[in-house]
Amino acid sequence: MPHAQLSTTQLKISLAKKAKGNGTITIKNVGLSTLKIDRLQVFSPAIGVSLPKKEIAAGATVKMKITVQKDKLKKNRRPRILMITNDPDQPEQIITIQTE
To answer: DSSP assignment of 49-97, as one string?
Structure first.
């Protein structure tokens, strides 16, 4: 069975004096079979996500890069990303992004 382990589910990105901010989340497959990331759903046009692979072998690690554009960010919204995988224990994981 695959099992996704994220370095964090609450990413803090600093936008002070910058138009863009970047952050990285490490996704590790601690299961015994291949982890498949079926979908990444972004809930804000200010968020960009870059993931090099959608299939992670058992024991392997992938870094997901997240970019936030300050001018497209709305103040009343909490930007977040929904990651849907074939992990039977946690098929949906929400990553919340906090901007400073």
So the answer is: EE-S-SEE-TT-EEEEEEEEEGGG--TT---EEEEEES-SS-SEEEEEE
13 SS3 class? strand
Residue type, 86: N
Phi, psi of 4 (to 5 degrees): -85, 135
Give the DSSP letter of residue 26.
Answer: E
Supply the pTM of this predicted model. 0.91
Residue 7 has pLDDT above 80, yes or no: yes
Report the alpha-carbon distance of residue 92 to residue 40 in Å, rounded.
10
Torsion of CA 47, 67, 60, 10, to 10 degrees: -70
